[in-house]
Amino acid sequence: VSVLYWRAPVAAAAMLRRSHVDAMRGGRFRGYLLKDSTLRTNQGHKSYRNLKSMGFDGKPRSLTRDAPKNHIAHMEQWEHAFPLLNHGNLGFDEQTNNTKYIELAHYLPRRGKGLPPWFRGRDTYSPLYAEQGRYEYQRYRMIARLPSEYKERFMTCIGDLRKAVGDESPLAVMHTLYQLIVEHFNPQHIHYLIAIEGLTKMGEVSRARDVWRLMERQMTWPDDKLIAAYLELCAVAGRHDWAFECWNRYCTEKKFLQAGEADPKPVSRTPFTVNRDELLYLPKWKKFFDHDPNNDVADRNRFNTTRQLYLNMARTLLRSGEFDLFGKYFSDLETALMDTPTPVPEPPDTVTVETPQWQPVWEQDNITSVNPFRVDAETAKQALGPSHTRVSTMAPRFLTNKQFLLHAATALIEDLVSAATANAAEGDPHAPLPKGLDKKGAAEFCDEVLERVCARLGNDLADLDVAPLSVAAIRAAVALKGCTGEEALDVARKIVGRKAEAARQEDGDVTPEALHPAVYREVLRAFCVRAAADYEAQQLDARGTVASATAVIKEMASQPSFEWTADHHYEVVTLLVRCGTMAANNYFVKNVLRRFRWDSRFAYQLYLEYKRYDDVEMWAELTKRMLVWTARYDVALDEETKRLIEDDYDTIKVQVRTFREVVSFAFRSQEERRMANDPATAMPNPVMDYVSHALPFPDRDTGNLDEFGELGQNRFPQKDGRMARAPFFEPSMPYGPAKEYTSELKEAGNPMDPVRLPAPWAAKYKEYARGKHPSYDQVYAGPMPQIFPSQRNFRRETRWDFKSIQNQSKYKVSTPY
Questions:
Q1: Residue 461 shares a structural domain with residue 599
Q2: How far apart are CA 176 and CA 211, in angstroms?
Q3: Which of 715, 744, 773 is the last residue of a domain?
């Protein structure tokens, strides 16, 4: 900051005054400071005999600093933005008749603009702005946007949809799509795809179907990925009528890839391009381009994905109880998978993959050693073990046809399991088992599918990964037959044995492979489920159960590179609690506490064990210690666990919530009660309920001053589609937020224009050519603004009029005022 800026000394206890000009909100336009400018520049008076001319110079000329004449902080009376007419300095300066500064300061409207300051946008109710559908007689105002704008808008929409899905807010998903349509963009396939998949995952079946019907209403032909997502939705809901409507409309021509067929299909068209000359000189209607998603369908279907469609169709028919049709589709799928070549998978899509935004704090490691206030707690850091057991699965499109057949069997079995365990009371979207199937029938069906697929694959089974199939088979055995842990282990061993048998047929003697960690996790879970069921039936053999489970755990530990995860330990802890061995706490401390990132599931189970202590002191102390752990290892207790502990508050006196939480909850619930009983809340609220009109886009600009210093014109953005800004006052907004929904983009001018000779009517002819016509575009003929309105008396004394002060000075100023 320049030394020339003058700052007031700050009194310690007083309010901090921002006396520095740049800190003031108004920027440059403000009353000038009455301070003696000689203090800075040492120039003395400009009279005919000053000290300097008489030889009394305080500083040699070389040391004199010349303050910049028009500097912000040095405003003399003749340097002000408003023309004060009381001094006679007639240089070309602010006090002359040049009103540029007044206009910039929003005191008066800019000149040379075609509209008066009170013009608030043209009539929004004219047919020009009425909303019309996509294919009605007159389209909406043709809005030409640049391809980059489309890209930006579509990408932000993808981001918004992803965020809404992540936040589990279905309304936001729908709103984002509606907003795109209201702004006269066509949603692309990727938008519908993210919306349908996300809503299905959230369990919002009817809303996901609304997205599909929205797509059909927009007259968009779905691509294969979109059809697959919708058929999966039909499978979850168990609605074969929806699925058949879709199949008959869009899938009648789908074929499996045949040998010798081109795969993938070649790219069909070059996307929209114009060269520089066309961009500059073609009329706007020839450059107009809206991304019609139907143009992309051929290209989005370059990679053959028919097998996924058949699989999802089969799943739907199975879930809705259409067994004959299921057999038809599944046998078609099976023969095609065995007889036709594997299609080339589509490479991962850059847009679909969620890339984390780079944060600059990730650039360097946190250097803890340089901070003198830090106490070193970490001497040796040990990496925590993995939290979840996952079967290593590729996306199904990367599987070969034979792997895909195995994947199909897995999907069908998992569908039946989720149908058998669906709980409508908890809002589970999955349809229950179909009418013709009970649990026993479903279990038999799972066995049949497994047997059929393994028989069909024959010796090819040797090369395939059977872990996902084993996991699904065990889940089915537990959910549908209620099998014990040992039986679950047998199920997995049989499948692995079949694979080893196939390998033996191929190349001699083979030992069965070790079971996958995910399989062992399902086995442990089978022990837990069975223990809970036996306890309910009052026939739990706790010692026997723990002994069998111990044998399985020893088998796991005997594998040299076995990957233990927090999930395994959770099943063990649950089993120890359910069997009433009072050993879960010790097991947890020894194996989990400092080795895995554990969560509140563990706390819930441990507390169930603590409750079994006879000694209340012991129970309370263990609970408190567990709460200390959650604070120390950054574990958030879920609501269920908190309430479980709170229910015993009278006994153990352990608080789970901070005082602040409790108080604010009490206050808020009291306030909510009061409002619920207050009849005034049921009255219509004139502010919130006011609807100004029914247009689908805002018709007034609420937030920004336009160049007239007013709110409210978004219909006629003057220059290149953004609001004007005064220099030094507020920067111009970036184009995206500033443009309103219906803004027009001006033609790009040729930057190397020759000087134009005057052509008086050219502008008028251009307007005619553009489609403006006096019959419906009247020239505004109302009152125009005057630069100096005659109603205003500029000679009236204002607070900036220092006439009375000047009259007291010993120098007489001769002006007519």
A1: yes
A2: 11
A3: 744
Amino acid at 341: P
Instruction: Give the CA distances from residue 80 to residues 88, 99, 471, 582, 817, in Å, rounded to whole numbers and listed in that order.
Output: 14, 12, 81, 86, 18
- The H-or-E segment that residue 770 falls in is helix 762-770
- Comparing 195-199, 376-380, 715-719, which segment has the lowest mean pLDDT? 715-719
What is the full DSSP assignment across 239-275? -HHHHHHHHHHH-TT--PPPTT--SSPPP--PPP---
Domain of residue 719, residue span: 691-744
**Rounded to an integer, what distance in angstroms lies between the CA atom of residue 416 and that of residue 425?**
19
In angstroms, what CA-CA distances link 545 with 35, 49, 407, 528, 539?
A: 93, 113, 33, 9, 12
Report the C-alpha gap between 27 and 6 in whole angstroms: 16
- The DSSP secondary structure of 327-355, one letter per residue, reads HHHHHHHHHHHHHSPPPPPPPPPTTTS-P
How many other β-carbons are positioned within 10 Å of the β-carbon of residue 632? 10
Residue 613 CA to residue 626 CA, distance in Å, equals: 15
Q: How confident is the model at residue 569 (pLDDT cuts 50, 70, 90)?
A: very high
Bridge partners for 385 per DSSP: 596
Tokens of residue 781, six digits: 């003929």
In a domain, 726, yes or no: yes
Among 700, 717, 744, the domain boundary falls at 744
Q: How far apart are CA 214 and CA 135, in angstroms?
A: 16
**Residue 717 C-beta-side C-alpha neighbours within 13 Å:** 22
| Range among 380-389, 465-474, 728-737 rated most confident | 465-474
Residues 563 and 479 in one domain: yes
| Per-residue H/E/C for 20-44 | CHHHCCCCCCCCCCCCCCHHHHCCC
Q: What's the structural domain count of the chain? A: 2
Q: What is the pLDDT of residues 23-58, one digit of tens each?
A: 555 545 544 444 544 545 555 555 555 566 666 655
Is 368 a member of any domain? no
Clarify whether residues 494 and 562 are in a common domain.
yes
Highest mean pLDDT among 113-127, 260-274, 416-430, 596-610: 596-610
Neighbouring residues of 810: CB distance < 8 A, sequence distance ≥ 6: none
Place of tokens 């199937």: 437
Do 597 and 520 fall within a single domain?
Answer: yes
The answer to whether residue 112 is domain-embedded is: no
Residue 428's pLDDT is what?
Answer: 78
Does the residue 195 lie in any domain? no
Q: Are residues 476 and 565 in the same domain?
A: yes
Report which DSSP code applies to 783. Answer: P
Q: b/e for 255-273, b at 16 or more Cβ within 10 A?
A: ebbeeeeeebeeeeeeeee
Give the number of other Cβ atoms within 10 Å of residue 52's Cβ.
15
Residue 726 and residue 632 in one domain: no
Lowest mean pLDDT among 4-13, 543-552, 668-677: 4-13
Confidence of residue 67 (pLDDT cuts 50, 70, 90): very low
**Encoded amino acid at 428, one letter:** D
Q: How far apart are CA 624 and CA 615, in angstroms?
A: 15
Q: How far is CA 10 from the centre of its chain?
A: 46
Please indicate, yes or no, whether residues 510 and 634 belong to a single structural domain of this protein.
Answer: yes
58: how many CB neighbours lie within 10 A of its CB?
10
Give the list of residues 6+ apart from residue 53 with CB closer than 8 angstroms, or none.
none
Local confidence band at 70 (pLDDT 50, 70, 90 cut-offs): very low
Query: What's the pTM?
Result: 0.65
Q: Is 803 exposed, middle or buried (0-12, 13-18, 19+ CB in 10 A)?
A: exposed
Q: State whether 462 and 550 are in the same domain.
A: yes
**CA atoms of 215 and 204, how far apart (whole Å):** 17
Amino acid at 407: H
